[in-house]
């Protein structure tokens, strides 16, 4: 099952070792941005107030202490950037980036790099994260809720082993993979996922039939490659001729692989009470399934490309923390990351997707299905898992929006992302980047184990 570092990661034009090298070069900027700035290390989401739309399963709630999330309940602990609207501070045009508008009025060709505040006439604006946009690949997390969400420090709630498993987590994963059952006859409707609980018997049956065919196909392929089919393996590990559907599956599987890598990397040894890497966990969940590792690398290529596309827009983005020095530092770090991402070789080419006239309507179907995946996050019965699941689906949704709904040359438009989407996008890249590093370390540990050293 070993990964050959020289092999190309399919659907990209880079090898595993090229992506590892890129990750090594970019991860210091990424870590600095996600771990040392308030803007990117705090997150606002609706963690508790949204019920699962698809089934009710109170027994699926995880009661482990490791599943709990430490929220910021005291307003003084919430960085100003996140509480501005609660304080009713300043209200301006939504994400209109007045600085940029002003520059245009003044006839400036380029925004003033690294400068904020009075120099460019920018003011802090309130951004309503629940405003919906038809280009969204995710359901805005605050949509339809009365409150303005929960505030969390991502650093104080690390993604790691929680002990959440059993029928509840399996049901969520199965429903997520079922969204992959594209069929011309059954396009996903907005708000009506093809999950087992959808009140649409025809759609459900079609999905189940397709699921069986795909599972059998996956099994045959695995056997043909001399691989082992795991008992009870419900995943849809198949090659589909259509790039778009394959990309959908790979994004989900890569996200699943990243979550698995983190829980194996930061695992609780229940007999000693110590946290640390669990090699057997990695072997079982990833190493024996090289296609999952490939999907993880694929996701790095996809999300990195989205961040690269934001390079010019981030130059004029307003980071309003209430502290001009912190804003300047955040802006420099964000621009540094985007510049490095844009300077790296282009390893994923989104322009190849949704081109063929025979796949008309597929993009909307793709978008609706991804929205359904984001809705399914409300069914995750472990608070910590739900937090990171929501953040990452929002991050992938933001990446897909940037890739498929936004052209770099379109400078007239402001950044197409809400603040939570931007934070989620960068942190999702941070998660994949950390997974690549952990996965590489695990492979070194395995080699040492197999060589008896
Ligand atoms: P699961 O990981 O539950 O997988 C179910 C089935 O999916 C497998 O049998 C296999 O057939 C298939 N599969 C597995 N991986 C892949 C892949 N990469 N690609 C394609 N198919 C695959 N647990 C934690 O400890 N910490 C967390 O932070 C955490 N976050 C979670 C977030 C979400 C959104 C969900 C739904 C669950 C989360 N969990 C987390 C639970 C965790 O993902 C597993 O579900 C749990 O550990 C049980 O694992 P399992 O061995 O039954 O297989």
From TrEMBL:
GO terms for cellular component: endoplasmic reticulum membrane. GO terms for biological process: protein folding in endoplasmic reticulum. It is a peripheral membrane protein. Keywords: Disulfide bond, Electron transport, Endoplasmic reticulum, FAD, Flavoprotein, Glycoprotein, Membrane, Oxidoreductase, Redox-active center, Signal, Transport. It is found in: Endoplasmic reticulum membrane. May function both as a monomer and a homodimer. Belongs to the EROs family. This is Endoplasmic oxidoreductin-1. It comes from Trichoglossum hirsutum. The gene is ERO1.
């Amino acid at each position: 099952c070993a990964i050959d570092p020289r092999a190309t990661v399919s659907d990209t034009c880079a090898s595993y070792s090229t992506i590892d090298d890129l990750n090594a070069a970019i991860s210091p900027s990424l870590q600095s941005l996600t771990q040392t700035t308030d803007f990117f290390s705090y997150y606002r989401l609706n963690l508790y107030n949204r019920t699962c739309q698809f089934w009710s399963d109170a027994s699926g709630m995880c009661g482990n202490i490791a599943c709990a999330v430490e929220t910021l309940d005291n307003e003084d602990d919430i960085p100003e950037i996140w509480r501005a609207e609660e304080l009713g501070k300043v209200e301006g045009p939504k994400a209109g980036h007045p600085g940029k508008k002003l520059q245009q009025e003044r006839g400036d060709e380029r925004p003033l790099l690294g400068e904020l505040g009075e120099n460019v006439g920018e003011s802090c604006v309130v951004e309503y994260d629940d405003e919906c946009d038809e280009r969204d690949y995710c359901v805005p997390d605050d949509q339809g809720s009365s409150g303005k969400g929960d505030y969390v420090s991502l650093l104080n709630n690390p993604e790691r082993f929680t002990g959440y498993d059993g029928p509840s987590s399996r049901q969520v994963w199965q429903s997520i993979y079922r969204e992959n059952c594209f069929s011309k006859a059954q396009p996903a409707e907005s708000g009506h996922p093809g999950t087992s609980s959808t009140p649409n018997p025809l759609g459900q049956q079609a999905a189940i039939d397709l699921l069986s065919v795909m599972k059998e196909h996956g099994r045959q392929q695995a056997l043909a490659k001399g691989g082992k089919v795991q008992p009870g393996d419900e995943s849809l590990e198949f090659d589909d001729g259509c790039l778009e559907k394959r990309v959908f599956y790979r994004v989900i599987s890569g996200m699943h692989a990243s979550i698995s890598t983190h829980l194996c990397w930061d695992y609780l040894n229940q007999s000693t009470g110590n946290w640390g890497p669990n090699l057997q966990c990695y072997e079982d969940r990833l190493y024996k399934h090289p296609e999952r590792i490939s999907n993880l690398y694929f996701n790095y290529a996809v999300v990195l490309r989205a961040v690269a596309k934001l390079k010019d827009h981030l130059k004029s983005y307003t980071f309003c923390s209430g502290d001009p020095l912190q804003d300047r530092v955040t802006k420099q770090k964000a621009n540094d990351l985007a510049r490095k991402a844009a300077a790296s070789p282009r390893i994923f080419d989104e322009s190849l997707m949704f081109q063929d006239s025979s796949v008309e309507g597929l993009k909307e179907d793709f978008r609706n299905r991804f929205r359904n995946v984001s809705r399914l996050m409300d069914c995750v019965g472990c608070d910590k898992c739900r937090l990171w699941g929501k953040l990452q689906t929002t991050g992938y949704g933001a990446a897909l929006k940037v890739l498929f709904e936004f052209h770099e040359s379109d400078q007239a438009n402001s950044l197409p992302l809400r603040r939570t989407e931007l934070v989620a996008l960068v942190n999702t890249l941070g998660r994949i980047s950390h997974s690549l590093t952990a996965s590489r370390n695990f492979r070194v540990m395995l080699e040492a184990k197999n060589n008896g050293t």
